[in-house]
# Entry
Amino acid sequence: MSTSYRLPAEWEPHRATHLAFPSNCADWPGKFAPAQWAFVEMVRHLAEGEAVRIAVTTETRKRQAARMFRDAHVSPDAIEFHLCPLDRGWMRDISPFFVYDRNQNRRAVLFRFNGWAKYDNHKLDARWGEEISRDLDLKSVEALHEGRPVVLEGGAVDSNGQGDLLTTEECLLDQKVQVRNPGFRKKDYEKVCRSFLGIKNILWLGSGIAGDDTHGHVDDICRFVNPATVVLCEEKNRNSPNYGVLEENRERLENARLANGTAVETVRLPMPAPLYFQGLMLPASYANFYIANGQVIVPTFNDEADRQALGILSELFPDRKIIGIHAVDLVWGFGTLHCLSHEEPAER
# Structure
């Protein structure tokens, strides 16, 4: 299949950001209310620069969300509500991949969502891609490989909009733990990504960080910040389970080349101190930032490294406002800002 699509980079203009108002208290046991207020703070900042489409599971949740937004002085003109039943609503992973075709029209590529090959309650979330594609009146195409639907989550990959893609072997190639596509090898993913996302070159990292229940999503460790540059998390504590993992990924990037043949520039991003709750290590990472039209919103963790991470990103995004969002409560859901959000690219 000859590709006619291009997956845009996150920093390209958005028409809107898609979010789902937190409704499953089982995702944040003991911290549900604080997580909802952290979500509202995220929306407050996003609404300054673009429309924010909020999926709500019931009319009751819609009224609650509207009340909380009003209390936080969120501009109602920026909010678009969408009533739809969902299991969890982590938009990064359940949304379509929005692409441009050769005529610069927007299209929706639909991959399967299987609850990260871990959770059974995912069937409502799995319908979101078709639901939002219809609502936006976008033509959609199902991602198939040899006639078989392909499972792929948005947090598993990151693109520079120029045909390069970051991902991890742990997430996509492991055939024993949280298997997305049984039997798939690198060549299978390369063919799928070339055909449906316009990807010419996949940069394969090794593993993700400890505490990540997705089993290796790349958006917790490494992200493109411009077509030739990535930020890569760095752990300086040699006793940390993340130290060796991140060092191996750094070594891989030293030898990596982009689709145009140039080397990848790597900027190190610190890791916060380990964060635990109820005995579990959480995937706290500054790499889970979200690039909005005029801002970059960054998770912070009441950690001394917060300031350093925000400073590094401010240098990399001089044309955007860098905003820290307190994410200690959000990360109890095993994800933060990037996991919750999905960009809808602007019309061309």
The chain has one domain: 5-345.
